[in-house]
Amino acid sequence: MVEEKNNNQKRSPLTSTQAILTLGLTVGFLLIACGIVLGLMAIQGPDLSKAVFEAIGHWWWSFLFFALGGILLLAFLLAQVFVWPVKKLEKVMETFEEDPLTSNRVQPVAYNKELDNLGSVINETMNQVQNLMQSQQDFVSDVSHELRTPVAIVKGHLNLLERWGKDDPEVLEDSLSSSLAEIKRMEVLVNEMLELTRAEKLTVNTEQDHTAVWPVVSRVYHDFQVLHPEFSWTFDNGLDQTSEIAIRPDHLEQLLIILIDNALKYSTERKEVHLALAKAGSWVEIGVQDFGQGIASEDLDRIFDRFYRVDKARVHQPGGNGLGLSIVKKMVAAYGGQVQVESALGSGSSFRLRFPIVQPSTESQSVSDQGKKDTKDSESLL
Questions:
Q1: Where is the sequence biased in composition, kind Basic and acidic residues (predicted)?
Q2: Can you give the residue ranges of every domain in the chain?
Q3: Hey, what long-range contacts does 184-191 have (CB within 8 A, 24 or more apart)?
Q4: Span 7-37, pLDDT tens digits
């Protein structure tokens, strides 16, 4: 790269865009001037031309020199105006090459729409590259930080077993149990980090990814009812079966599982979870409410940060990596939705997902119509 840059600097200045523009404009102005002179000669006749040449006399060469100099200077200044934004763009790109995290950006060009659009595209590309680099750095830093503790624990138990613990059945069992628990936690962490990475790079097709909300929420609700019978469950449905949002069904299910799972984890005393579906204007709202320990006001702005935990005592517990809500935020934003949270310490939390309503697909509409027809047929038979 450095060698190529040096080769570019060694090129003749006559091959630069500014030199070519200057030469082209100079030739153009000379042709225009010659055309004007020849036009005047043709209109006024040879007598006037002869009188003009006799009047300037020996000043002829001086006049020609100043005319050429003026034309060349004007062409150079115009070429400078055209090329100056390109030079600034080149300088920004060189700075970006030396420091990929630079804050320098291409400035708007008011008098050149094409260069202004090019600068906007370059700025957007630089922003995307820097976001990806920052995400990569955060990923490496977070994973290395989170894996350091479980790796140290597993290593400590293995060293203990290697020295003398393998001969003690109680120590052997305890070390194996602790090591397996930490390995499981590392597995959960890696899987969640992969899910977060997929959410950050999620490609959305809102024209094809349509999902009827009620069936998905109802299925997840009943699944958790079966898995956790010790909890009291409530489901308030204010939607019809044809209400759809632009999201893949498996992603909507994943969002619900994360929120409900969090509600279960933090409901230590009052084991009760409420789910609700509602229509608010052109939006579908999905609510998950628990009556657990709640979230302090100073923590509400940070609960969607990766690896942030409200309860610091859960740092080393399985499933408490603090990535679930980060995944929710990234995925909901990718689908054009919103995440809202209301909470008070000691009174539980309420999370609300909001998505714009889309027109039901033909297939969903036909299924709904068929269901209505079957209902009418059954009523007529009765």
A1: 370-382
A2: 2-104, 140-200, 211-367
A3: 184/318, 185/150, 185/316, 185/318, 185/321, 186/147, 186/150, 186/151, 188/318, 188/319, 188/321, 189/143, 189/146, 189/147, 189/321, 189/323, 190/143
A4: 554 555 544 565 666 666 666 766 676 766 6
